[in-house]
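[step 3/7] fold_predict: job queued, chain A
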Amino acid sequence: MSKEYKPPRVPDTLVILRVNMYAEPQRMICTKCNTKQKLTEFGKDATATKGISSWCKRCKREARKAYRKANPEATKLRDFKSDLKRHYGLTINDYNAMLEGQKHCCACCGQHSSNFKRGLHVDHDHTTGLVRGLLCTECNPGIGYFQDSVERLEMAITYLTKFRK
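[step 4/7] structure written:
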């Protein structure tokens, strides 16, 4: 005797929604420019109640651009701090401590940072990611071109001394 097939029972709390692919996408009004736009035109905002920014992406971009233009020094410092943290895991205090420890001089050639237009760059080992020190704008790419290889640098020294007068 075979049992009669019974479909699985759907819980009362489960609501099945039908999606109409031709329905108009949800829209929202930007509080900055007062235009009604698709939700895709608004960025995410964790602090907002719905998790969506109240300004559209275009208004946010324009406001950010205006702020950066009006506050170049603050923006430059914020970008520098962000890059230090993102690329090297350093804070501005860590960087300043390294700078003081090196007496504001390049760890490679010893020239003072005031001799360069830009500040000293963070040098790091590309395989381990460990920070080694602060280098000037001439030494940092130079070491990079030699791919952090002591052997290559020794070969370059031998080459240069061979042609020294």
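[step 5/7] annotate
The radius of gyration is 29 Å.
The mean pLDDT is 87.
exit 0
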